[in-house]
């Protein structure tokens, strides 16, 4: 408890929510992409009758089941915090966000739960057509789930379609405007593409590890090829979607973009793109900045000389924490361009007929296997910390959203979460690595060699 003795209740509640949602977000990101991958594999098996696709489906469905289960458990725990730590927010925004979260359960979760068992165990019991439908419904359910959750989060970022009653509560007036709020299409597209890329690089990393072990079965080479195609095709789309999302954010949340860009000062004749530096929030500048003149104006306004406002136009109490947003945004960007580079690299090697022989490509793919999770977390940090000091942007401050709780109570629950999460999800992640440790072959079972750190180091 002494570890958190100097923190107030609000800070501890924010740390706790950040901790639990960080665990939660990585599992749905993986499940969304993997569910669609399984639907594609099953469809290809039924179309071509090539048992390579069936073996890959049976291999990855076990991994999906574990990841899906951990996503459900972590999501349930996270949602309780709206009542325990953020009850004022729940009471004020509940008339809007409550129904949206209920719709997610009534549509997506019920759909996934209803067909998951058939997908995992029903191939020989229900026939190929119904089994394919079940697999497609699970994939659809993960996308519907993302749709509702992203709608909730987007409304908190760009609230619309509401009124405020005499009790100060947000009351829905136009549900179409609430669900399809100004930032929703951009956030949903960006998140779904991120999920697909996260899964693609996990699949590529697993396949590359087995290629480095000189295991070149049809299953291993096929899944590496499919993952690299996804990297080639989806990464450019994600960069374009990210750019459009950034322009939307500039329109509706300009101070978030100011923090992302590190623009403490306004630039009336074109703003530089700061590639890297050290934000100095006390002195209101970026130290040791490496910048390209006027490029930020070209990216954000498509004009080299377009003026851009800086944080000097924003009251100090309205500014987000600049350093966190600045660094997390660059981590996300760096990973995105690394993914693009690997995708183009694989395309060159595919044309040369060396996709399965280039060991440096395989080593790089192993190293980038967890990169999608890091990018998702970095993007989430950029989005959520950049929204501060608000929970509902411009309308409800985080400090006004907290429950009447004492700091020691929040600290105790936070410590309990840390211990339980690392034990439970650590064990689940270790088991998933064990499942990935054996290559997909005919009759794949569940006794596997774990992927150990020493093995990864040897492969690299």
TrEMBL record:
EC number: 1.10.3.-
Cell location: Cell inner membrane; Cell membrane
Cross-referenced InterPro entries: Cyt-d_ubiquinol_oxidase_su_1
Alphabetical UniProt keywords: Cell membrane, Electron transport, Heme, Iron, Membrane, Metal-binding, Oxidoreductase, Transmembrane, Transmembrane helix, Transport
Keyword Transport included in the entry's annotation: yes
Principal subcellular localization: membrane
Domain of life of the native organism: Bacteria
Membrane topology: Multi-pass membrane protein
Single annotated GO MF: oxidoreductase activity, acting on diphenols and related substances as donors, oxygen as acceptor
GO terms (BP aspect): aerobic electron transport chain
GO CC list: cytochrome complex; plasma membrane
Family: Belongs to the cytochrome ubiquinol oxidase subunit 1 family.
Protein name (Swiss-Prot/TrEMBL): Cytochrome d ubiquinol oxidase subunit 1
Organism of this sequence: Ruegeria denitrificans
